[in-house]
Amino acid sequence: MNDASALGVTKFINVGYGNMVATDRVVSIINPEPAPIKRMIQEARETGRIVDATHGRKTRAVIFTDTDYIILSSLQPETITQRIN
């Protein structure tokens, strides 16, 4: 547990183009290329559970949240992970 979460303060990370995500909501950060992930993205689009933060760029990371939303980012998964840590 880091100091911010011990104080009840939510930490946000930039996932590209000024878009922010609460780090305590992130469950996983995945590469978008595998077919099962592509199917999950399509299903989320159909049900309105997708947040596209790519600004029209290529999706390079898929962020899954604990609220069942999927966030698309044009940053590499490694870059987002470094920003969380």
Task: Describe this entry's structure for a reader.
This protein is of the alpha+beta class and 85 residues long. It has helices at residues 3-6, 35-47, 77-84, and strands at residues 12-14, 20-22, 26-30, 50-52, 61-65, 70-73. A four-stranded mixed β-sheet has the order 3-5-6-4, sandwiched between helices. It starts with a helix and ends with a helix.
Summarize the structure.
The protein is an alpha+beta fold and 85 residues long. It is 29% helix and 27% strand.
Which residue ranges are poorly predicted, with pLDDT under 50 across at least 5 consecutive positions?
A: none
Largest beta-sheet details: 4 strands, mixed
Discrete helix count: 3
Strand content: 25-35%
Question: What separation lies between the terminal Cα atoms?
Answer: 12 Å
Structural class: alpha+beta
Q: How does the overall form come out from the CA principal axes?
A: globular
Helix content: 25-40%
The largest beta-sheet arranges its strands as 3-5-6-4
Radius of gyration: 13 Å
SSE order and pairing:
Layout: H1 3-6, E1 12-14, E2 20-22, E3 26-30, H2 35-47, E4 50-52, E5 61-65, E6 70-73, H3 77-84
Q: Key terms for this structure?
A:
85 residues, 6 strands, alpha+beta, 29% helix, two-stranded antiparallel ribbon
